[in-house]
Amino acid sequence: MTGASGQAAAPSDAAPLPPGDAGAGVPGDTASAARAETAARLRTAVGRLARRIRPTRVGAELTLTEVTVLATTARNGPVGLSWLASEEGMNPTMLSRVVWRLEDAGLLARRPDPRDRRAALVDATPAGHKLHERIRAERADALSQLIEHLGMAEREALDAALPVLEQLARDLKDRRP
Questions:
Q1: Which positions ≥6 away from 55 have C-beta within 8 Å?
Q2: Which residues, including other chains, have CB under 8 Å from residue 9's CB and lie 6 or more apart?
Q3: Residue 128, exposed/middle/buried by CB under 10 A (0-12, 13-18, 19+)?
Q4: Is-contact 78 121, C-beta < 8 A?
Q5: What is the rounded distance in angstroms from the CA atom of residue 132 to the CA atom of residue 136?
Q6: I want to staple 135 with a disulfide (CB 3.0 to 4.6 A). Which of 12, 42, 59, 60 is the partner?
């Protein structure tokens, strides 16, 4: 068998495709197509879950960006504005506006960085921590109620998938430009 260049094609370990399958005759194409399909389905499912779990009664007055900045700050604070902008993938000007709105709402407090007086640190206020925890609890409760209705096999499959999903999340964070 010869490839497009006229040279002999390398033997393939891939199983032959049924007639009419896309990519038939291209070694490894079936596995690549399957990975692409899995990635697309995973992205869709995770996106839908995230969109459907985001809205909360307790955080309804905040935008999604404000909730995310509050959560990141509450978990990691006090943090520098440049680190926070990088972590959130936001430009510093937009982040400053979000931080200002959260400060105005009494949820974040800004103070000078003791190591560099030209820079500022932000941290969640007690009210910010309380709101963050209420949002987290509401979202966790919504998911818990859904998981409760799953069958035992589905719950076990979900438990088994969690370490892989957590690793994918870490790997994606590390790959961000």
A1: none
A2: 1, 2, 3, 27
A3: buried
A4: yes
A5: 6
A6: 59
pTM of the model: 0.70
Say if CB 122 and CB 110 are below 8 A apart.
yes
Burial level of 53, CB count in 10 A (0-12/13-18/19+)? middle
Scan for tokens 């931080």, then name that residue. Answer: 99
Q: How many residues does the chain have?
A: 177
DSSP 177: -
- Work out the pLDDT band at 1, boundaries 50, 70, 90: very low
Q: pLDDT of 71-92, one tens digit each? A: 999 999 899 999 999 999 899 9
- The model's pLDDT over 92-121, given as tens digits with 9 standing for 90+, comes to 999 999 999 999 999 999 999 999 888 899
